[in-house]
Specification:
The chain contains 7 helices and 12 strands. With about 290 residues, the protein is an alpha/beta fold. The protein is globular.
């Protein structure tokens, strides 16, 4: 049965005298399978990013991502087994759906503690966004991931998905805000959908910057235009002379990456997982002592 989501509570820690009601491995079980005999796993975290059609799962040894997977469909038993085989103690999850306190409570029964990311979750950076309740959890996780990978550095996160999202993190740990623009496929389809005769063109970057046909004109406008937009925002945000780190992520990041003429560009396909792990560690520092 697929997990469904529907609510929000804070950090839940498993009570020491609680008897699990599920027939799974106990919380904090010794690593098994391919993890058996592994040394140095003082802290292992299970991180779950739940999307509309698939979920990204990560295992962290402290701040190091040691394994990641993408699941199309899963059960609570499968997730628990996956985490227990790695010896995971703590779990964090984020969902595109509404918060789900029931899932959090069930995970807390199987692990030492469980945390769901919501707009009320304490963050390792100061959030200066004026409407935090409307801020996507994927955007929060991306900013946290940038802070985890480049602490004390000014960062621009560019998430190239359905929309291209820009997030600015200052060197002193303030999330200033960001921008949202149409993604590559949205640009291409919009020109076809909202006009009478323009075709829907393939996602291919022409060799020349000036289109020599309707197809290459559309591709340059949509795709090369997006590249220039990314470069333009990066230069605009770095006008004060700071050495800005640009982290590009998302499904179309690999497409845009070769065309970006910018310094300090880092492709981080697992940025959201790094961010969720960073938020989990921030919310339970006393539980992360050896």
């Amino acid at each position: 049965m697929r997990i469904r989501f529907s609510g929000s509570v804070g950090f839940i820690q498993k009570k020491r005298n609680f008897a699990p009601s599920f027939s799974t491995l106990p919380p904090a079980a010794a690593p098994t399978g391919k993890w058996a005999g592994r040394k140095g796993l003082i802290l292992v975290n299970l991180v779950l990013d739940i999307g509309n059609t698939r979920s990204k799962v990560g295992i962290f040894d402290d701040q190091r991502l040691v394994e990641q997977a993408i699941w199309g469909d899963w059960t609570l038993e499968e997730l628990s087994s996956y985490g227990n085989q790695a010896g995971a103690d703590h779990v964090i999850f984020s969902s595109v759906s509404v918060p789900d306190p029931a899932l959090q409570e069930k995970l807390a029964e199987r692990f030492v503690s469980a945390l769901e990311l919501t707009h009320e979750t304490p963050l390792p950076f100061r959030n200066a966004y004026r409407t935090p309740q409307t801020l996507g959890k994927d955007r929060l996780a991306g900013v946290a991931g940038a802070q985890a990978l480049f602490p004390g550095r000014p960062c621009l996160v560019v998430d190239c998905g359905t929309c291209i999202k820009y997030e600015v993190l200052s060197a002193d740990g303030v999330y200033v805000g960001g921008n949202i623009a149409p993604g590559a496929q949205m640009r291409i389809r919009a020109m076809h959908t909202f006009t009478a005769r323009l075709p829907e063109v393939p996602m291919h970057m022409p060799e020349g910057a000036i289109g020599s046909s309707t197809e290459t004109a559309l591709q340059n406008g949509a795709l090369r235009g997006a590249v220039l937009e990314i470069e333009g925002f990066a230069r605009l945000f770095a006008q004060d002379g700071e050495d800005l780190i640009l982290l590009i992520t998302g499904g179309d990041a690999a497409f845009f990456l070769p065309y970006l003429q910018l310094p300090n560009v880092h492709h981080e396909p697992h940025l959201t997982l790094h961010g969720l792990n960073h938020i989990l560690q921030f919310n339970a520092p006393q539980r992360f002592q050896p």
